[in-house]
Amino acid sequence: MAHAPSVLDFQSFATQAISAEEIQFIESSVAQFGAPLLMLDCDVIRQQYRALNQALPNVTLHFALKPLPHPAVVRTLLEEGASFDLATSGEVDLVAQAGVPAERTIHTHPIKRDADIRDALAYGCRVFVVDNLNELAKFKPYQDEVELLVRLSFRNSEAFADLSKKFGCSPAQALTIIETAKAWNIRVKGLSFHVGSQTMHPQKYVNAIRTCHDVMQAVVARGLPALSTLDIGGGFPVSYTTQVMPIDAFCEPINQALSELPETVQIIAEPGRFIVAQAVTSVASVMGMAEREGQMWYYLDDGIYGSFSGLMFDDAKYPLVTLKQDGEYLPSVLSGPTCDSIDVIAENIMLPKLENGDLVVGRMMGAYTSATATDFNFFKRAQTVVLNELAQDSERLIG
Ligand SMILES: *Cc1c(COP(=O)(O)O)cnc(C)c1O
Questions:
Q1: Whose CA is nearest to atom 13 of ligand 1?
Q2: Which among 85, 123, 146, 340 is least surrounded, fewest beta carbons within 10 Å?
């Protein structure tokens, strides 16, 4: 997944608008809490969860914590009636602390230590994922307590993260796992897949659903107990600097493919990015500047090793905007604060002449940003300001 930082073109940069109201709100937040900040708007979390729920009406949504494991996100989604997708004991602790009932969770890491299984079971989570026999054998001691999903692999080179390179098995291997599980008295309740994060084409899901349908029929043909669950994973796309399909249109062919499955099959999904990407706006301030080789270099207090880590680990290009919009525009570089030369957010962009303390805003900064940030060089990670956590009033909390 690692790439050199992307260069934003002037076009996408200059078209980003910002309202006077938002400028005032951002300036007062920085005056109160300092910079850098991440503004997490729980109203956007609600709006995205509801939109996906509406687009996939027969699918139970398990929010995957990985892209933004923040307690306010968990609390907001719990209130919305969401279920949750966990992968580590840290994520188990986070949902347990938020009071999420264990029946609403599944554990989907295909490779686990015994302690990971025990921690999840102690909490009450019973559904786990396997993609090979070595993993299946780990459940022999917990036969009576667990229900498994077998994860299939569907490669996707276009996605930001092709998760089927690292995880998942073939249909033939899935059948072997299901047969072996029967022999070992371990219950397999269904199949799962993840077509890749930020998948642009719904056909990837459609093909995967059809293959899973074939596997389900082969299971019955072999006289094994019918599978009752299909987990269609995450991967639902959001618009960064280029528009993606609206979610309703994106999900239409997926719903069509799902309608071909037997009615007894319960469908679940594990959206992460779609729920949280749009909910966070980053705010960084200029801590210094220099003119180098005809470009203005602005050194911000947040960068590649911080909230913009997604430029390295994810493939995202975040829309950026300066609060200052007037004055002469000069060819510019936005750099992060560390002493490493790789720590550059954007080069060759046209920006108004900035001063020390001026603020730069990043949009779509909710998924795989703060989650993968470090405190390299002892630059502290951005603080998160939580907005609108209670649906009724607009409360501000720092967390
Ligand atoms: C990361 C991950 C997700 C979330 O994927 P998105 O592309 O962010 O929707 C869901 N399920 C599993 C198993 C994952 O590893």
A1: 108
A2: 340
